[in-house]
Design goal:
heterodimer; A: flat; B: about 140 residues
């Protein structure tokens, strides 16, 4: 189960890179591509958290949420 | 009489059985939450690719897809929070309870921020005065 969830998390992380690249290449707007990347990475973090709730994975998920919140707020100010 | 009924109840549902049942339920609910998030990510990924190579490329279209992914995240988080609540019934140590509290806090905070973002961005998307970016 844990291996399966870790694999799913890895796939979603790869999807984050590809989807954000597609959005960036299409619109040339970093303010649009970055939230897409962060949304997918958040999804990956949540899947990993369901796999093994260790303090390390917890710290990772909290960091992603904090960074995501910080960047989204920053982008809102600049757009 | 009352003591006899209570004793029968305890024999019918021992603590270890209850723990096992709740543990299985928690795993099922958490797996369902993870599955919803994964399915949302796959659907959003396919839609991003199709929109990227299609003719209807616009900032609004991409924002709509991102919003749908956010909704899947919120739904998955609801399931995972339900699992957290259920897990409080069988957490025997302070270490586990502390970890559970931290996970529940992160999930609740993320759920709150995501719901707020979705509401705000939905209002922006539905606002016809917001300009769309033309494809290059």
């Amino acid at each position: 189960m844990t291996d399966l969830l870790n694999m799913a998390s890895l796939l979603v992380t790869a999807a984050a890179v590809i989807a954000a690249t597609v959005v960036l290449a299409t619109t040339r707007l970093l303010a649009l591509a970055l939230p897409v990347f962060l949304e997918f990475v958040t999804a990956a973090g949540l899947i990993r958290l369901a796999a093994e709730p260790t303090w390390m994975s917890l710290l990772m998920a909290a960091s992603i949420v904090a960074v995501r919140r910080f960047i989204v707020a920053g982008l809102r100010v600049h757009t | 009489m009352g003591d006899r009924v209570l004793a029968a109840d305890i024999e019918l549902l021992p603590a270890s059985t209850l723990r096992d049942v709740v543990d299985v339920l928690v795993q099922l609910i958490e797996a369902a939450g993870a599955l919803i998030i994964f399915a949302g990510a796959v659907i959003a990924f396919v839609r991003f690719l199709r929109t990227g190579v299609g003719m209807q490329r616009s900032a609004r279209e991409f924002a709509t897809i991102r919003l749908s992914l956010g909704r899947f995240l919120v739904l998955g988080l609801e399931f995972q929070l339900a699992g957290d609540v259920l897990r409080t019934a069988i957490s025997p140590s302070f270490e586990e309870i502390g970890q559970l509290a931290a996970i529940a806090t992160i999930r609740t905070a993320l759920n709150y921020f995501l719901s707020r973002e979705i509401a705000r961005e939905r209002a922006e998307i539905e606002d016809p005065t917001v300009p769309q970016v033309a494809p290059p």
